[in-house]
Every structure is written in structure tokens, then in C-alpha cells.
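Single-chain item
Fold in C-alpha cell form
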Amino acid sequence: MKTVKAEVINEIIINKSRFITILSYVSSKEEVNSLLEKYKKIYKDATHYCFAYILESTEKYNDDGEPAGTAGMPILNVLQKHELTNVICLVIRYFGGIKLGAGGLVRAYSNSASLAIKEAKITDIINGFNVTITFPYDKQKTIDNLKLDIKDKSFTDKITYNFNISKEDYLNKKDIIDKYLTYKIEIKILKTD
């Protein structure tokens, strides 16, 4: 599975209608709603706010007043074609006075989404964990030899490390990590190559 690394905003004009596309990573329905709310405020005088999003197994789209199947579904089709997940594509339209017809709208919304994806940095999603372990000072060398990607460290009467780890890497180091495990939360880790 793939997703976008960072938000992309682009704009095209077709027969005097302005199409502004926002393509962004999202990890929850709350983030989807927050993004929609944000851009509806920024572009508050727009005619349509059509979108599609994919959150793992959930797919949704909205034509926002455009003829049924001419906006949201074409955007969703583009996201599916590129095998993206945890992503939203919002296309904001300012009507320019010239009707595009059903076929023209499908092409306009599909093209808007495709151009945004072309500009985006795409990355793989790897299943993994966010892990916190706590251990005595005399075990620091053992833990440091695991070559973990430590995100946060704290030193009190014991040492606490927090890190992200791929499922595969976790399974290879499981015996030592589990010995000092404080808690574990399953997450999606973005590959940062």
C-alpha cells in the first residue's frame, strides 16, 4: 500500500472554471473532517467541494452538488488506480459560467486528481509498532546494540526508550524487546526512504 508524504495543492482552469486540488495524508475520519472544514473556510465562496478519501478499508466520495457520479467517483477512481490509502483528495471548483457537461466534469475532476498525484511524493506504508520499553542502566548497551530508531529517551531511576519499528524487525528483536516492554500500540509506520 502507498500514501502521500506531504500535502500537495495544485490548480487548473478549464473553460473559465477554476479547480483547486488538495491531496493530503489522513489517518482518521476526524482528520478528514478537519481538512474539509479548513479548506471550506479558506475557499468559502467556492461553488463545489468534491472529494474522495480512502482510509484502509473505508472508501467514500462526495459530488457536492455536481451531477451524480461526475466528481467524487472519478476522484476515487484515480486514488484506487494509484493504489493509495490513508489519503484524501479534495477538488474545489469555482464555476466559470460555462457548463462542462457530464463527460467534461468527469475529465476535469479526474485530471485534477491525477495532476496532484503526479506532483506528490508517494511512499510505502509498512505495518509496525510504536514501542516503549523501560530497563535498568546496566542493560543500556544490550538495548543500544539492537540499533533501534529511538524517537524519545528519558533517564530517571531507569531508562525509557520510545521507538517505531516495522513488524518484521520487531519479530527479529522480539525476545529482548518484550523483556523490557512497558506498553505497545500497533500503528502504521510510514517508510521514509
Q: What stands out?
A: The mean pLDDT is 90.
